[in-house]
TrEMBL record:
Residues 13-119 form the DUF695 domain. InterPro entries: DUF695, RraB-like_sf, RraB_dom. The lineage of its organism: unclassified sequences, metagenomes, ecological metagenomes. Pfam families: DUF695, RraB. It comes from hydrothermal vent metagenome. Residues 134-224 form the Regulator of ribonuclease activity B domain. This is Putative cytoplasmic protein.
């Protein structure tokens, strides 16, 4: 499962599939291509992405694709493999007729530090990824995401005291307590309300503020819901 998001001006594509369970993949293969996929015209980008897919396909017997970054004018492909032998030569043969300038680095990274520190989403980034489906559905219905409306956010806790402590503090950051959520799946949960827009910046700001307080009280963020703007 590939997900895409932005982090501090860099585009990131990350593989969130079951690859993290493959412990024998110890070698990080980094392929740096001199191509700025954020600034080139659409036709060149489409051609480049087709080439990227061909690289992934040609290396699939030797390495698992874990993600991509576009940063500082370079597009970077990342893989993990069991062995390092022969990889550099295989990559060279793939790029030989491509016309793309590239560099390659192969390092041992048995703990997958690069993946978790540079590609894997933070909690906030993950919730923004989860939010994307709802946002795209609303856009498809013609919603103006920049128009503020009441948004409900849902938070659950392991104990009643954690929930009560959180509710007593959440109004300080502009969220209003709206209702208890009574369900077997979420035994200590609340609905909060706040009027705000649903563009990326607004979601990042409001979810980010909530997460800081939720973590303090050992809670769990359960996403949000909102009507279409009037």
């Amino acid at each position: 499962m590939l997900e895409k998001y932005m982090r501090e001006g860099a585009f990131i594509e990350v593989n969130l599939g079951e690859i993290r369970n493959i412990s024998e993949l110890e070698y990080l293969i980094s392929v740096f291509v001199k191509f700025d996929a954020l600034k080139e015209d659409n036709e060149k980008v489409e051609e480049f992405l087709d080439f990227k897919e061909s690289v992934i396909d040609m290396l699939q017997d030797e390495a698992v694709y874990i993600g991509m970054r576009v940063i500082d004018g370079w597009s970077e492909f990342y893989f993990y493999s069991k062995e390092s032998k022969g990889i550099e030569q295989k990559v060279a043969s793939i790029f030989r007729e491509s016309g793309y300038a590239y560099e390659i680095s192969i390092t041992k990274d048995s703990r997958w530090d690069f993946y978790y520190n540079n590609l894997f989403p933070t909690d906030l980034e993950m919730y923004l990824i989860y939010s994307k489906k709802s946002v795209l559905q609303m856009m498809a219905e013609g919603d103006d995401l920049l128009k503020p409306r009441e948004v409900e956010h849902y938070v659950s806790f392991d104990t009643e005291s954690q929930k009560d402590r959180f509710v007593s503090e959440v109004e300080k950051i502009g969220f209003a307590y709206k209702d208890e959520i009574d369900s077997k799946e979420l035994p200590h949960a609340v609905a909060l309300a706040k009027v705000h827009a649903l563009d990326q910046d607004s979601l990042e700001k409001n979810i980010g503020e909530l997460l800081k307080l939720i973590k303090k009280d050992h809670g769990h963020y359960e996403l949000w819901s909102a009507p279409l703007a009037d």
